[in-house]
Amino acid sequence: MRLQDKTAIITGGANGIGKETAILFAQNGAKVILADFDEANGAAAVEELRALGAQAHFVKADVSSSEDAEQIVAAALEQFGRVDILVNNAGITRDGFLVKMEQEQWDRVIGINLTGVFLCTQAAAKVMMAQGSGVILNAASVVAQFGNVGQTNYAATKAGVVGMTKTWAKELGPKGVRVNAVAPGFVSTNMTDKVPEKVLDAMKLQTPLRRLGQPRDIANAYLFLASDEASFINGAVLAVDGGLSF
């Protein structure tokens, strides 16, 4: 049990990578706070975790709200008494070419993917610093380094997440808190469900392993970085992309 008796907050945990991470963490002994604005799927995910014998609790939250971010951390303290791990997984896309992108598309993606990471980390870091220990894991992306057509907003957030990760690793490291990021490549999630088959085939061809990643591939990376096996890893951005980024 690599996370035995650890309390983990996972944002965006109702579906996809977040849900898979919650399941894997629970299987490794973690107590899980699952936060998402998708109440139906979030509550269902918590019931799945409890069926596995895990202690789990759902919080309906919009991470772009400072009040909701504080509520997530408060729920962890109320339910389990501490915060050991924060996985900033919540993220959305609102794609569009630069000259056609509406400000609402920009603002919403920035709000969830960047401001949300800032607010949740700010709330959790205060608790972790007082404890003298903790792990913060952020969802970056290969597009932070390479960009992607139609994703000005998304690429900007993921580049920002990388910058924040490295900054926080320097700020919080002396307090016993490690901060790292995972940068997925093309992963089969609900975000790719509506992508045309020929586009998916092109994604696979760009990836040396010639397949899309699965949510468990990313969850495995989060598990490693959250565990004591990664106790000397701080400020890293781990590419989990099938070789796409080299």
TrEMBL record:
Pathway: Lipid metabolism; fatty acid biosynthesis. NADP(+) binds at N89, Y154, A155, A156, T157, K158. It comes from the Bacteria. Catalyzes the NADPH-dependent reduction of beta-ketoacyl-ACP substrates to beta-hydroxyacyl-ACP products, the first reductive step in the elongation cycle of fatty acid biosynthesis. It comes from Tumebacillus avium. Its EC number is 1.1.1.100. Keywords: Fatty acid biosynthesis, Fatty acid metabolism, Lipid biosynthesis, Lipid metabolism, NADP, Oxidoreductase. GO terms for molecular function: 3-oxoacyl-[acyl-carrier-protein] reductase (NADPH) activity; NAD binding; quinone binding. Homotetramer. The active site is at Y154. Gene3D superfamilies: NAD(P)-binding Rossmann-like Domain. Coiled coil: none annotated. NCBIfam families: 3oxo_ACP_reduc, PRK05653.1-3, PRK07231.1, PRK12826.1-2. SMART domains: PKS_KR (SM00822). The lineage of its organism: Bacteria, Bacillati, Bacillota, Bacilli, Bacillales. This is 3-oxoacyl-[acyl-carrier-protein] reductase. InterPro entries: 3oxo_ACP_reduc, KR_dom, NAD(P)-bd_dom_sf, Sc_DH/Rdtase_CS, SDR_fam. Residues 6-185 form the Ketoreductase domain. Pfam families: adh_short_C2 (PF13561). The keyword Lipid metabolism applies. GO terms for biological process: fatty acid biosynthetic process. Belongs to the short-chain dehydrogenases/reductases (SDR) family. It catalyses: a (3R)-hydroxyacyl-[ACP] + NADP(+) = a 3-oxoacyl-[ACP] + NADPH + H(+).
